[in-house]
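Final report, results section. Input specification for complex C-07:
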Amino acid sequence: MTDQPPLESRAHDLLAVVIGAFAALTLITSPWNVDTEGPDPFYKGPLIFPIIILAMMILASLPACLRMIKPPQGASWHLDGEGFPLKTMIVLTLLCLSLVGVQVIGLEISALAFLAVGLRLAGHRGPLRLILIPVIITGLVVLVFKHFLGVFFPTPLIFDWFLE
Amino acid sequence: MWANMIDGIQAALTLANLGALVFGAFVGIVVGILPGIGPMVGMVVLLPFTFSLHPDVALSLLLGVYCGGYFGGAVPAILMRTPGVPSSLITTFDGFPLTQRGQAQTALSAALLGSFGGGIISVVILVFLAPILAHVAASFGPPEYFAAGLFGVTLVVMANRKQFAKGTLLLGLGLWFSTVGIDGATLSPRFTFGILSMQNGLDIVPVCLGLFGIGQTLILVEKKILQTESMSLTRSTLDFSKLAQALKYWYTLLKSGIIGTFVGLLPGTGSILASFMSYEAAKKSSKHPEEFGKGTPEGCLASEAGNNAVPAGAMIPLLTLGIPGDALSAVLLGVFTINGIYPGPLLLVKEPVLINTLYFSMFLINIVAFLMLALWLRPFAMIVKVPSSLLAVNIMVISVIGIYAVNTRLFDAWVALAMGVLGYILLRLRWPVVNLVMGVVLGEILENRLRESLSQGDGNPLIFLQRPVSLGLIILTALIVVVPLIRDRRRAALKTAKQG
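Structure output:
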């Protein structure tokens, strides 16, 4: 980050309001989201602690709510001058896809594809970084997790489709 | 007692434990040297691998990363004015000016001696102080534990009191995360939203790995490659003659080690404060305070001794009360609990061999990390040339697969990804993410103690005020919130009056 994000940026208040609203919604719906039919009195039951912490969260978000309604003089949405994190979002989407890919095309291909494309997106070039590193890391991941630790990975769905 | 100690030393010297602590220290130094990565990312990435290990070996591995990270952080701070870990920022004050004068070896020798000395001093204090605190805590009941936990989380929030509301929000969110899933006492499902996988709750491992591992690496993806032209080292190893020269600051070393340990003992205070306080104390008592900030080895030594004393200091409340001192020891608490070991005053009685293994392993980690860096100084320093975005992409894959591997549940990997997004937003906005982790870790402890206390008092919350220790802790908690807020408000009012 190039410059320190001002802590009074309205982006902070927006996030605080979102978390506060989530807490309020969760608090309101908690009787339906927590099973309180047990024989225990309220103070021994499963709802007392969530109620306390959700109330605490709502209280903590109130100053931000007030600032959102009535912004202080000179308040701005400027955060850190780093712009929209497009590259990060693409890498994150790829990471999600690679997780789906583990089920569909298997661990090896999805890890290899994510590493190669991810490194390319992160600005790396050349066969060493785009081919050799993904191959080595994928090999290590497979060796350690599949063979050394004996972790079970689901058979890729693509295999089932072909076998059918 | 001696038999337990000998058994502990024997366990620490087993091949598996030695291998774990050497590997852990190596990883720790590497992630410490790499600015922006740090020991937290190293620990959470290794976390999934620890579940197939014996608890003492797993703890040695992670403690190796924890301590090694602080050793490594000094290297780029001195050579490039870029702290590897945040607390090494103080080391740059004197380290980089020394490098500019061609005395990088003097600065590195002082910093390494400081790290080593601070680490050893803090372990000695841990060995002697932990049984005393555990003895006191043995008389604690649920109200005292709840009050101690409340005191701990309040300290964490107040450590970032400029972000008091945000810190409270994140602590609350972390506490709420800990309530998701089947309630252990009543077996009632809570906040599962009809999703079957949510019944197991949000495990601490995907939450921590997501927030710190994936969150931090998402930030690193956008980072540019570090410019390393200014890095200069004439030798590939540490100049041991300079090390002997640094020994003349033994009093500063001792003082900084003690300060660092006691700062680390307080939850939420962190290694930056330990480093800063040690540096300031050394400056005050130095014969040449005017040299501080312009390039004195004493400054490097004090700062590094202070921050390297934090890990053992943070272990004191963790082992005796089950309250972690910082986010890194919160991860260690996760390792304990996953292995069915619950830190608290009885831990020292129930698991004496494990505790002694831990103490001795911490001694060994400091020796190993010191020797590794001293003998392979240049190769380690060269690591800083590895582009952080290259590491970030690789860490992401290892993290996601590692999380799946813990319970072979894809749900955990999705939780880690969701937490990664949250972690990215919070880290970019510079919100105190540590509060969220402390909330997740301490949530279950606080909730259980609260409900047990209320049961003891037949639902009457005054039970917390009827017992002297819990009353004292609650008054202390109220004071650490109210006093700084009043002081800040007065200062702000004075400032406004002056401007007016």
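Chain B touches chain A through 61 residues (CB under 8 Å). The two ends of chain B are 67 Å apart (CA to CA). This concludes the modelling results for the funded period.
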